[in-house]
TrEMBL record:
Biased composition (Low complexity): 200-217
Source species: Schizophyllum commune (strain H4-8 / FGSC 9210) (Split gill fungus)
Domain Rab-GAP TBC: 1-31
Molecular function as annotated in GO: GTPase activator activity; small GTPase binding
Swiss-Prot/TrEMBL keywords: Coiled coil
Protein name: Rab-GAP TBC domain-containing protein
Positions in coiled-coil regions: 122-184
Record lineage: Eukaryota, Fungi, Dikarya, Basidiomycota, Agaricomycotina
Amino acid sequence: MFCSQWFLTMFSYRFPLDVVFRIYDHVLANGIEAIFGFSIALLHKNEETLLKMKFDEILGFLNMKLFDIYKVEGEGDAPPTYKVDEFIRDAVSLRISSFMLDNYAHEYEELMRETHKNALEKDELRNTNRVLAAKVKELEENLSQISTEHIEILNELVKQRLRNEEMEEQLVRYKLLYAEAMHQNEDAGSSHRLSQATTNSAHRGSNRASSNRGSTT
């Protein structure tokens, strides 16, 4: 984000011209890899200051005040000067070669592949989670429907049980009525037999009396 201006403009967008000329000389003499040395030297020189800042403060510092660490204020109205030789020595001392940059590039590519792999795994997990969530929702809907049907069946069972109990009560009542009717029928039969027996006994007594009168005559 902030380094793009350094690399695209070769530090010429804001740095003093005498510093920019020295940077160009070093890059032309040692190759484009040298620009990384200047970038790292600036960050390393300002490390303590950067670590004390917040993120929004860091961006402003990198764009405006990064090279102030090498500034020497002039006396009176004299313009400030810069410790260019010290800056060049700091950058050259880092010894950044194309081989090192290739290694860093391979490490970065490997890191990106691993990150991409993790991203793919996360996407697969998200898709799996989405499918499972849909299945869970479907199962919950089925469970809700089954619960509703179960409640309806229970209601029907309760109603049927109530009807059965009502029918059992009616059956008991009919049995009692039948038993009472049978008892009354038996009582009526007993009374009839007793009356019949009394009548027969009276007839036999009358016949016996008639026979006795006939014998006497």
